[in-house]
Write a structure and sequence with these properties.
Elements: H1 4-7, E1 14-15, H2 21-31, E2 35-40, E3 43-49, H3 50-59, E4 71-72, E5 77-78, H4 83-93, E6 97-102, E7 105-111, H5 112-120
Parallel strand pairs: 1-2, 5-6
Antiparallel strand pairs: 2-3, 3-4, 6-7
Length: 128
C-alpha cells in the first residue's frame, strides 16, 4: 500500500488567521483548491475548506476573517502513514482534507480526491 507522501500535494496554499474570508475564497478559486491551511507563523492552527465557504456565504461572513470560520486544530497525518490509514481517518472524521506532517513539520495536504485518484490509478479517461 502506498504512503501518504507518495500521493500528497506539497504545493500548499496557506494564510494567516487574520486573512479575510473573501481573500481566501479568491485564492482558493485562483489555485483551484478545496482547502487552505491556516498558519500562525509556522504553526498549523486551522483549516478552511469549501464547506466553510458555503457557511460563510450562508451567514454573510465574507468580509470577516478566516479565523472565525476555520476548523481549529485539524487532525494531521504523518507522511509515512499509509493511504488506507488516511482514508479511514477521513471516513471516520467526516472530512475530506488532511494536513500532512513529517517529523512534526507541515509538508503537504492529502485530499479524498487524491486517495480516489490513486486507488483508481486514473483508469477512466476524463470526460468519459
Amino acid at each position: 500500500m502506498a504512503t501518504v507522501a507518495e500521493i500528497m500535494s506539497g504545493n500548499l496554499l496557506t494564510v494567516a488567521p487574520s486573512t479575510s474570508v473573501a481573500d481566501v475564497v479568491k485564492q482558493m478559486h485562483e489555485r483551484e483548491v478545496g482547502a487552505v491551511l491556516v498558519l500562525d507563523g509556522a504553526n498549523l492552527v486551522g483549516i478552511f475548506t469549501e464547506r466553510d465557504v458555503l457557511h460563510a456565504v450562508a451567514v454573510g461572513h465574507l468580509e470577516g476573517n478566516v479565523e472565525a470560520l476555520m476548523s481549529r486544530h485539524p487532525e494531521t497525518i504523518d507522511a509515512s502513514d499509509t493511504t488506507g490509514h488516511a482514508a479511514a481517518m477521513m471516513i471516520h472524521g467526516g472530512f475530506r482534507h488532511l494536513p500532512v506532517e513529517d517529523g512534526g513539520k507541515l509538508v503537504g495536504i492529502v485530499s479524498i480526491r487524491d486517495l480516489i485518484r490513486h486507488e483508481l490509478d486514473d483508469e477512466i479517461p476524463r470526460g468519459a
